[in-house]
Amino acid sequence: MPHSHHSHSGQFCRHAFGSLEEVVSEAIKQRFEVYGLTEHVPRYRLEDLYPEERELSLDDLSKQFLSFLNEAHRLKEVYASQITLLVGLETEHITDDDLSHLQTLLKDNGRRIDYIVGSVHHVNTIPIDFDRVTYEKALANFSSKEGVYIVGNDQMERFLSAYFDAQHQLIRQFQPEIIGHLDLCRLYTPSLDLKQYPIAWGKLIRNIEEATRYGALFEINAAAFKKEQWTSPYPGKDIVALIQEKNGRFALSDDSHGPRTVGQYYLDVADYLVHVGITELWYLDRSLEPNHNGRYISPRRFEGDWRLHAFWKHREGERHGVAFQ
Question: Which of 36, 188, 273, 297 could in theory staple to 5 by disulfide, Cβ–Cβ 3.0 to 4.6 A?
Answer without folding.
Answer: 36
